[in-house]
Fold this protein.
Amino acid sequence: MFDIGNSPDYTAYLALSVILFMIGTMGFLLRKNTIVMFMCVELMLNAVNLALVAFGRELGHAGGQIFVFFVLVVAAAEVMVGLAILVAIYRRRLRVSADDLSNLSG
Amino acid sequence: MNAELLVFVIFGALAMGMALRMVFQSNPVHAALHLVVVLVSIAVLFLAQEAYFLSVVQIVVYTGAIVVLFLFVIMLLGVDKQDDEAETLESGRFSFLLFGGILVGLVAFLAPIAGYFSLFEERGVEPGTLGKPTKVNAADSVDRYDAVNIAGTVVPIAHLRGADGAPVSVVALSPAEAVRFSAELRFTDKDLVIMNQAGVVQDHLQLLPQGNHSAIDPSDEGDTETVRPDIQVPDYDLDEEVAVSEIRALVHLGNVEVIADSLFTTYLLPFEVVSILLVAGIIGGVVLAKRDRSLHGSAAGRSDEALVTLKEGREAAHADLVTDRDVAVTTIPDADASLRAGAAAGPGGEAEKGYVDV
Protein backbone atom coordinates (compact mmCIF):
# COMPACT_ATOMS: atom_id res chain seq x y z
CA MET A 1 0.00 0.00 0.00
CA PHE A 2 2.76 2.46 0.86
CA ASP A 3 6.11 2.71 -0.78
CA ILE A 4 8.83 2.06 1.73
CA GLY A 5 11.65 4.47 1.27
CA ASN A 6 9.57 7.19 -0.28
CA SER A 7 7.61 9.94 1.36
CA PRO A 8 4.29 8.69 2.63
CA ASP A 9 1.60 9.68 0.20
CA TYR A 10 -1.68 11.08 1.31
CA THR A 11 -3.32 7.67 1.68
CA ALA A 12 -0.95 6.99 4.58
CA TYR A 13 -2.12 10.15 6.31
CA LEU A 14 -5.71 9.23 5.53
CA ALA A 15 -5.25 5.80 7.08
CA LEU A 16 -3.80 7.36 10.21
CA SER A 17 -6.67 9.80 10.23
CA VAL A 18 -9.22 7.00 9.99
CA ILE A 19 -7.55 5.13 12.82
CA LEU A 20 -7.46 8.17 15.09
CA PHE A 21 -11.07 8.98 14.23
CA MET A 22 -12.16 5.45 15.05
CA ILE A 23 -10.28 5.51 18.36
CA GLY A 24 -12.06 8.76 19.15
CA THR A 25 -15.44 7.31 18.18
CA MET A 26 -14.77 4.23 20.25
CA GLY A 27 -13.86 6.30 23.27
CA PHE A 28 -16.84 8.57 22.86
CA LEU A 29 -19.27 5.67 22.71
CA LEU A 30 -17.72 3.59 25.45
CA ARG A 31 -16.58 6.00 28.11
CA LYS A 32 -18.91 7.14 30.84
CA ASN A 33 -16.97 10.16 32.02
CA THR A 34 -18.29 13.12 30.05
CA ILE A 35 -14.97 14.98 30.21
CA VAL A 36 -13.13 12.08 28.64
CA MET A 37 -15.91 11.87 26.07
CA PHE A 38 -15.16 15.50 25.23
CA MET A 39 -11.50 14.66 24.80
CA CYS A 40 -12.48 11.93 22.39
CA VAL A 41 -14.46 14.47 20.36
CA GLU A 42 -11.32 16.61 20.21
CA LEU A 43 -9.39 13.60 18.99
CA MET A 44 -11.95 13.04 16.23
CA LEU A 45 -11.73 16.68 15.17
CA ASN A 46 -7.96 16.39 15.04
CA ALA A 47 -8.16 13.28 12.91
CA VAL A 48 -10.33 15.22 10.47
CA ASN A 49 -7.81 18.08 10.52
CA LEU A 50 -5.06 15.67 9.58
CA ALA A 51 -7.11 14.41 6.64
CA LEU A 52 -7.88 17.98 5.56
CA VAL A 53 -4.22 18.95 5.53
CA ALA A 54 -3.32 15.81 3.61
CA PHE A 55 -6.02 16.50 1.02
CA GLY A 56 -5.06 20.14 0.76
CA ARG A 57 -1.47 19.22 0.14
CA GLU A 58 -2.36 16.62 -2.43
CA LEU A 59 -4.75 18.86 -4.32
CA GLY A 60 -2.51 21.88 -4.13
CA HIS A 61 -5.22 23.98 -2.61
CA ALA A 62 -4.88 26.30 0.35
CA GLY A 63 -8.49 25.58 1.25
CA GLY A 64 -7.50 22.44 3.11
CA GLN A 65 -5.44 24.34 5.63
CA ILE A 66 -7.90 27.20 5.83
CA PHE A 67 -10.64 24.80 6.74
CA VAL A 68 -8.52 23.44 9.56
CA PHE A 69 -8.57 26.91 11.06
CA PHE A 70 -12.34 26.91 11.05
CA VAL A 71 -12.37 23.49 12.65
CA LEU A 72 -9.99 24.80 15.31
CA VAL A 73 -12.27 27.72 16.07
CA VAL A 74 -15.35 25.53 16.21
CA ALA A 75 -13.51 23.11 18.50
CA ALA A 76 -12.49 25.93 20.81
CA ALA A 77 -16.05 27.27 20.99
CA GLU A 78 -17.41 23.78 21.51
CA VAL A 79 -15.02 23.04 24.36
CA MET A 80 -15.81 26.35 25.98
CA VAL A 81 -19.56 25.84 25.94
CA GLY A 82 -19.37 22.12 26.62
CA LEU A 83 -17.20 22.43 29.68
CA ALA A 84 -19.37 25.27 30.98
CA ILE A 85 -22.37 22.98 30.61
CA LEU A 86 -20.48 20.30 32.51
CA VAL A 87 -19.73 22.74 35.32
CA ALA A 88 -23.41 23.69 35.45
CA ILE A 89 -24.47 20.06 35.49
CA TYR A 90 -21.97 19.30 38.22
CA ARG A 91 -23.43 22.08 40.36
CA ARG A 92 -26.86 20.55 40.08
CA ARG A 93 -26.07 16.88 40.32
CA LEU A 94 -22.53 16.61 41.70
CA ARG A 95 -21.64 14.02 39.11
CA VAL A 96 -20.71 14.29 35.46
CA SER A 97 -20.95 10.64 34.55
CA ALA A 98 -23.01 9.96 31.46
CA ASP A 99 -24.87 7.26 33.36
CA ASP A 100 -26.32 9.87 35.69
CA LEU A 101 -27.48 12.12 32.89
CA SER A 102 -30.30 9.90 31.79
CA ASN A 103 -33.27 12.17 32.34
CA LEU A 104 -34.15 12.13 28.68
CA SER A 105 -33.89 8.40 28.20
CA GLY A 106 -37.22 6.65 28.22
CA MET B 1 14.80 5.76 4.88
CA ASN B 2 13.03 8.85 3.81
CA ALA B 3 12.88 11.57 6.45
CA GLU B 4 9.20 12.26 6.06
CA LEU B 5 8.40 8.58 6.23
CA LEU B 6 10.47 8.26 9.38
CA VAL B 7 8.64 11.17 10.99
CA PHE B 8 5.32 9.78 9.86
CA VAL B 9 5.99 6.34 11.27
CA ILE B 10 7.32 7.56 14.60
CA PHE B 11 4.72 10.21 15.30
CA GLY B 12 1.86 8.34 13.70
CA ALA B 13 2.54 5.38 15.96
CA LEU B 14 2.94 7.69 18.92
CA ALA B 15 -0.38 9.39 18.16
CA MET B 16 -2.17 6.07 17.78
CA GLY B 17 -0.71 4.54 20.92
CA MET B 18 -1.34 7.57 23.05
CA ALA B 19 -4.89 7.92 21.70
CA LEU B 20 -5.59 4.33 22.71
CA ARG B 21 -4.08 4.90 26.12
CA MET B 22 -6.19 8.02 26.47
CA VAL B 23 -9.35 6.05 25.83
CA PHE B 24 -8.42 3.32 28.27
CA GLN B 25 -7.26 5.66 31.00
CA SER B 26 -9.57 5.71 33.99
CA ASN B 27 -8.11 8.88 35.48
CA PRO B 28 -9.27 11.92 33.46
CA VAL B 29 -6.12 13.89 34.31
CA HIS B 30 -3.95 11.18 32.80
CA ALA B 31 -6.28 11.04 29.82
CA ALA B 32 -5.80 14.78 29.28
CA LEU B 33 -2.02 14.41 29.45
CA HIS B 34 -2.14 11.62 26.89
CA LEU B 35 -4.28 13.86 24.72
CA VAL B 36 -1.47 16.42 24.83
CA VAL B 37 0.96 13.89 23.38
CA VAL B 38 -1.51 12.99 20.64
CA LEU B 39 -2.04 16.65 19.73
CA VAL B 40 1.69 17.39 19.64
CA SER B 41 2.24 14.34 17.43
CA ILE B 42 -0.40 15.63 15.06
CA ALA B 43 1.32 19.01 15.08
CA VAL B 44 4.54 17.28 14.05
CA LEU B 45 2.65 15.51 11.27
CA PHE B 46 1.41 18.93 10.12
CA LEU B 47 5.05 20.01 10.02
CA ALA B 48 5.91 16.97 7.95
CA GLN B 49 3.21 18.00 5.51
CA GLU B 50 4.69 21.46 5.24
CA ALA B 51 1.83 23.11 7.09
CA TYR B 52 4.19 25.08 9.27
CA PHE B 53 1.87 27.78 10.48
CA LEU B 54 -0.88 25.32 11.21
CA SER B 55 1.46 23.22 13.27
CA VAL B 56 2.30 26.14 15.53
CA VAL B 57 -1.36 27.10 15.80
CA GLN B 58 -2.19 23.52 16.70
CA ILE B 59 0.22 23.55 19.62
CA VAL B 60 -0.80 26.99 20.82
CA VAL B 61 -4.55 26.50 20.56
CA TYR B 62 -4.94 22.85 21.45
CA THR B 63 -2.29 22.12 24.01
CA GLY B 64 -2.06 25.69 25.16
CA ALA B 65 -5.71 26.50 25.53
CA ILE B 66 -8.05 23.59 25.09
CA VAL B 67 -6.24 20.95 27.11
CA VAL B 68 -5.50 23.47 29.84
CA LEU B 69 -9.22 24.21 29.94
CA PHE B 70 -9.91 20.49 30.24
CA LEU B 71 -7.46 20.11 33.10
CA PHE B 72 -8.87 23.18 34.78
CA VAL B 73 -12.40 21.82 34.71
CA ILE B 74 -11.29 18.35 35.82
CA MET B 75 -9.49 19.77 38.80
CA LEU B 76 -12.21 22.31 39.54
CA LEU B 77 -14.85 19.63 39.71
CA GLY B 78 -12.66 17.03 41.34
CA VAL B 79 -14.02 14.32 39.09
CA ASP B 80 -10.64 12.67 38.91
CA LYS B 81 -11.05 11.20 42.37
CA GLN B 82 -14.75 10.63 42.11
CA ASP B 83 -14.96 8.48 39.03
CA ASP B 84 -11.87 6.41 39.51
CA GLU B 85 -13.62 3.37 40.86
CA ALA B 86 -16.95 4.16 39.30
CA GLU B 87 -15.90 3.40 35.77
CA THR B 88 -14.70 0.00 34.86
CA LEU B 89 -14.10 -0.91 31.28
CA GLU B 90 -14.88 -4.56 31.83
CA SER B 91 -18.51 -4.17 30.87
CA GLY B 92 -17.64 -2.91 27.41
CA ARG B 93 -15.39 -5.75 26.38
CA PHE B 94 -17.65 -6.93 23.62
CA SER B 95 -18.12 -3.39 22.37
CA PHE B 96 -14.37 -2.89 22.28
CA LEU B 97 -14.01 -5.97 20.13
CA LEU B 98 -16.78 -4.72 17.87
CA PHE B 99 -15.26 -1.31 17.40
CA GLY B 100 -11.80 -2.76 17.00
CA GLY B 101 -13.20 -4.89 14.18
CA ILE B 102 -14.81 -1.88 12.54
CA LEU B 103 -11.54 0.02 12.85
CA VAL B 104 -9.46 -2.70 11.27
CA GLY B 105 -12.08 -3.16 8.59
CA LEU B 106 -12.13 0.51 7.71
CA VAL B 107 -8.38 0.73 7.43
CA ALA B 108 -8.07 -2.52 5.55
CA PHE B 109 -10.72 -1.68 3.00
CA LEU B 110 -10.98 2.06 2.75
CA ALA B 111 -7.32 2.96 2.46
CA PRO B 112 -6.57 0.81 -0.60
CA ILE B 113 -9.82 1.98 -2.17
CA ALA B 114 -8.80 5.55 -1.56
CA GLY B 115 -5.44 4.81 -3.09
CA TYR B 116 -7.02 3.12 -6.10
CA PHE B 117 -9.52 5.82 -6.86
CA SER B 118 -6.84 8.36 -6.45
CA LEU B 119 -7.75 11.96 -6.83
CA PHE B 120 -5.47 12.35 -9.75
CA GLU B 121 -5.92 9.04 -11.43
CA GLU B 122 -8.12 10.41 -14.15
CA ARG B 123 -5.38 12.87 -14.97
CA GLY B 124 -2.99 10.10 -15.76
CA VAL B 125 -0.92 10.47 -12.68
CA GLU B 126 0.20 7.60 -10.55
CA PRO B 127 -1.21 7.79 -7.06
CA GLY B 128 1.35 9.01 -4.62
CA THR B 129 3.67 10.68 -7.08
CA LEU B 130 2.55 14.14 -6.13
CA GLY B 131 4.38 14.46 -2.88
CA LYS B 132 7.63 13.39 -4.40
CA PRO B 133 10.24 15.55 -5.97
CA THR B 134 10.37 15.78 -9.69
CA LYS B 135 13.46 14.22 -11.08
CA VAL B 136 15.35 16.58 -13.29
CA ASN B 137 18.35 15.44 -15.22
CA ALA B 138 21.27 17.65 -15.84
CA ALA B 139 20.78 17.17 -19.56
CA ASP B 140 17.28 18.60 -19.42
CA SER B 141 16.83 21.98 -20.89
CA VAL B 142 14.17 24.53 -20.29
CA ASP B 143 11.57 24.50 -22.99
CA ARG B 144 9.53 27.42 -21.86
CA TYR B 145 8.55 29.27 -18.78
CA ASP B 146 5.07 29.49 -17.54
CA ALA B 147 3.22 30.43 -14.45
CA VAL B 148 0.23 29.18 -12.59
CA ASN B 149 -1.97 31.01 -10.23
CA ILE B 150 -2.29 28.95 -7.09
CA ALA B 151 -4.59 30.35 -4.46
CA GLY B 152 -3.80 33.86 -5.53
CA THR B 153 -0.07 33.36 -5.66
CA VAL B 154 1.60 33.39 -9.03
CA VAL B 155 4.11 30.58 -9.09
CA PRO B 156 6.54 30.42 -11.95
CA ILE B 157 7.11 27.05 -13.50
CA ALA B 158 9.44 25.72 -16.12
CA HIS B 159 8.62 23.14 -18.74
CA LEU B 160 11.62 20.91 -19.22
CA ARG B 161 12.70 19.13 -22.33
CA GLY B 162 14.93 16.11 -22.24
CA ALA B 163 18.11 15.55 -24.21
CA ASP B 164 16.13 13.79 -26.92
CA GLY B 165 13.87 16.77 -27.27
CA ALA B 166 10.81 15.17 -25.73
CA PRO B 167 9.00 17.07 -22.99
CA VAL B 168 10.07 15.65 -19.68
CA SER B 169 8.42 17.38 -16.84
CA VAL B 170 7.37 20.62 -15.35
CA VAL B 171 9.00 22.04 -12.30
CA ALA B 172 7.86 24.76 -10.04
CA LEU B 173 10.53 27.38 -9.74
CA SER B 174 10.47 27.84 -6.04
CA PRO B 175 13.66 28.20 -4.06
CA ALA B 176 13.18 24.67 -2.82
CA GLU B 177 13.12 23.43 -6.38
CA ALA B 178 16.20 25.32 -7.38
CA VAL B 179 18.55 22.66 -6.14
CA ARG B 180 16.88 20.06 -8.26
CA PHE B 181 16.94 22.46 -11.13
CA SER B 182 20.71 22.41 -10.79
CA ALA B 183 20.77 26.11 -11.19
CA GLU B 184 20.84 28.94 -8.82
CA LEU B 185 17.65 30.78 -8.56
CA ARG B 186 17.02 34.17 -7.23
CA PHE B 187 13.39 34.53 -6.52
CA THR B 188 11.59 37.53 -5.24
CA ASP B 189 7.91 38.15 -5.54
CA LYS B 190 8.39 40.33 -8.57
CA ASP B 191 11.43 38.98 -10.18
CA LEU B 192 12.88 35.68 -11.16
CA VAL B 193 16.44 35.21 -12.19
CA ILE B 194 17.68 31.86 -13.29
CA MET B 195 21.36 31.31 -13.34
CA ASN B 196 23.39 28.29 -14.14
CA GLN B 197 25.93 26.93 -11.73
CA ALA B 198 28.62 29.19 -13.07
CA GLY B 199 26.52 32.15 -12.11
CA VAL B 200 25.75 33.20 -15.64
CA VAL B 201 22.28 34.55 -16.04
CA GLN B 202 20.37 32.22 -18.26
CA ASP B 203 17.04 33.83 -18.15
CA HIS B 204 15.31 36.60 -16.40
CA LEU B 205 11.62 36.49 -15.95
CA GLN B 206 9.79 39.39 -14.53
CA LEU B 207 6.59 38.58 -12.78
CA LEU B 208 3.91 41.17 -12.92
CA PRO B 209 0.65 41.12 -11.04
CA GLN B 210 -2.43 39.77 -12.72
CA GLY B 211 -0.39 37.43 -14.80
CA ASN B 212 0.96 39.93 -17.30
CA HIS B 213 4.41 38.59 -17.42
CA SER B 214 7.18 40.00 -19.42
CA ALA B 215 10.46 38.36 -19.90
CA ILE B 216 13.69 40.12 -20.25
CA ASP B 217 15.96 38.57 -22.75
CA PRO B 218 19.36 38.09 -21.19
CA SER B 219 21.03 39.40 -24.28
CA ASP B 220 19.21 42.69 -23.90
CA GLU B 221 21.24 45.07 -21.92
CA GLY B 222 19.50 48.01 -20.45
CA ASP B 223 15.86 48.48 -19.78
CA THR B 224 14.31 47.15 -22.94
CA GLU B 225 11.66 44.64 -22.11
CA THR B 226 10.43 42.23 -24.68
CA VAL B 227 7.14 40.66 -23.90
CA ARG B 228 7.25 37.01 -24.76
CA PRO B 229 4.03 35.81 -26.29
CA ASP B 230 4.68 32.21 -25.33
CA ILE B 231 4.22 32.90 -21.65
CA GLN B 232 0.68 32.33 -20.61
CA VAL B 233 -0.69 32.45 -17.17
CA PRO B 234 -3.56 30.05 -16.86
CA ASP B 235 -5.79 30.20 -13.87
CA TYR B 236 -5.32 27.31 -11.57
CA ASP B 237 -8.01 24.85 -12.43
CA LEU B 238 -7.94 21.17 -11.63
CA ASP B 239 -10.00 20.32 -14.68
CA GLU B 240 -7.35 21.74 -16.87
CA GLU B 241 -4.54 19.52 -17.80
CA VAL B 242 -2.14 20.95 -15.35
CA ALA B 243 1.04 19.00 -15.04
CA VAL B 244 1.47 17.42 -11.68
CA SER B 245 4.69 19.01 -10.71
CA GLU B 246 3.12 22.38 -10.97
CA ILE B 247 1.31 21.40 -7.88
CA ARG B 248 4.67 21.00 -6.26
CA ALA B 249 4.36 24.74 -5.88
CA LEU B 250 2.36 23.71 -2.88
CA VAL B 251 5.62 24.01 -1.02
CA HIS B 252 4.41 27.52 -0.51
CA LEU B 253 1.08 26.52 0.94
CA GLY B 254 2.29 26.35 4.51
CA ASN B 255 3.46 29.90 4.37
CA VAL B 256 1.72 32.44 6.48
CA GLU B 257 1.39 34.71 3.46
CA VAL B 258 -0.58 32.24 1.40
CA ILE B 259 -2.85 31.31 4.27
CA ALA B 260 -3.45 34.90 5.25
CA ASP B 261 -4.02 35.81 1.63
CA SER B 262 -6.78 33.32 1.06
CA LEU B 263 -8.18 33.69 4.56
CA PHE B 264 -8.76 37.39 4.07
CA THR B 265 -9.88 37.26 0.46
CA THR B 266 -11.56 34.04 -0.60
CA TYR B 267 -12.64 32.93 2.83
CA LEU B 268 -13.39 36.31 4.34
CA LEU B 269 -17.09 35.66 4.93
CA PRO B 270 -16.59 32.30 6.67
CA PHE B 271 -13.86 33.96 8.72
CA GLU B 272 -16.27 36.63 9.95
CA VAL B 273 -19.02 34.11 10.61
CA VAL B 274 -16.66 31.97 12.62
CA SER B 275 -15.61 34.97 14.66
CA ILE B 276 -19.26 35.56 15.52
CA LEU B 277 -19.45 31.92 16.58
CA LEU B 278 -16.44 32.42 18.83
CA VAL B 279 -18.00 35.46 20.48
CA ALA B 280 -21.22 33.52 20.99
CA GLY B 281 -19.18 30.72 22.52
CA ILE B 282 -17.48 33.09 24.95
CA ILE B 283 -20.80 34.58 26.02
CA GLY B 284 -22.38 31.15 26.33
CA GLY B 285 -19.51 29.85 28.41
CA VAL B 286 -19.64 32.78 30.80
CA VAL B 287 -23.42 32.61 31.16
CA LEU B 288 -23.48 28.88 31.73
CA ALA B 289 -20.62 28.74 34.20
CA LYS B 290 -21.63 31.80 36.17
CA ARG B 291 -23.01 31.24 39.62
CA ASP B 292 -25.86 33.65 40.00
CA ARG B 293 -25.15 35.63 43.18
CA SER B 294 -28.26 37.77 42.95
CA LEU B 295 -30.42 34.71 43.58
CA HIS B 296 -28.71 33.96 46.87
CA GLY B 297 -31.28 33.57 49.61
CA SER B 298 -34.06 32.94 47.17
CA ALA B 299 -35.23 29.49 46.20
CA ALA B 300 -32.39 28.97 43.77
CA GLY B 301 -29.81 30.05 46.32
CA ARG B 302 -31.17 27.69 48.90
CA SER B 303 -31.15 24.78 46.52
CA ASP B 304 -27.54 25.63 45.86
CA GLU B 305 -26.74 25.45 49.56
CA ALA B 306 -28.73 22.28 49.90
CA LEU B 307 -26.59 20.79 47.16
CA VAL B 308 -23.44 21.69 49.02
CA THR B 309 -24.71 19.99 52.16
CA LEU B 310 -25.87 17.09 50.04
CA LYS B 311 -22.37 16.75 48.68
CA GLU B 312 -20.79 16.93 52.11
CA GLY B 313 -23.25 14.45 53.49
CA ARG B 314 -22.67 12.05 50.66
CA GLU B 315 -18.91 12.28 50.89
CA ALA B 316 -18.96 11.87 54.65
CA ALA B 317 -21.29 8.93 54.44
CA HIS B 318 -19.13 7.33 51.81
CA ALA B 319 -15.93 7.86 53.77
CA ASP B 320 -17.40 6.56 56.95
CA LEU B 321 -18.84 3.57 55.25
CA VAL B 322 -15.42 2.68 53.99
CA THR B 323 -13.39 3.38 57.12
CA ASP B 324 -15.48 2.78 60.17
CA ARG B 325 -18.94 1.37 60.14
CA ASP B 326 -19.59 1.91 63.78
CA VAL B 327 -19.03 5.63 63.79
CA ALA B 328 -20.87 6.10 60.54
CA VAL B 329 -24.21 6.73 62.10
CA THR B 330 -23.03 9.41 64.43
CA THR B 331 -20.72 11.31 62.11
CA ILE B 332 -23.09 11.85 59.23
CA PRO B 333 -23.54 15.59 59.37
CA ASP B 334 -26.85 17.28 59.67
CA ALA B 335 -27.92 17.65 56.12
CA ASP B 336 -31.31 18.11 54.63
CA ALA B 337 -33.75 15.67 56.19
CA SER B 338 -34.85 13.95 53.06
CA LEU B 339 -31.33 13.87 51.77
CA ARG B 340 -30.09 12.31 54.97
CA ALA B 341 -32.69 9.64 54.72
CA GLY B 342 -31.60 8.93 51.16
CA ALA B 343 -27.85 9.12 51.58
CA ALA B 344 -27.55 7.45 54.94
CA ALA B 345 -30.10 4.70 54.55
CA GLY B 346 -27.66 2.16 53.13
CA PRO B 347 -24.63 2.78 55.34
CA GLY B 348 -26.75 3.47 58.39
CA GLY B 349 -28.53 0.16 58.18
CA GLU B 350 -25.36 -1.77 57.69
CA ALA B 351 -23.60 0.08 60.45
CA GLU B 352 -26.33 -0.58 62.94
CA LYS B 353 -26.31 -4.18 62.04
CA GLY B 354 -22.56 -4.31 62.51
CA TYR B 355 -22.87 -2.66 65.88
CA VAL B 356 -25.41 -5.21 67.03
CA ASP B 357 -23.16 -8.02 65.89
CA VAL B 358 -20.29 -6.68 67.93
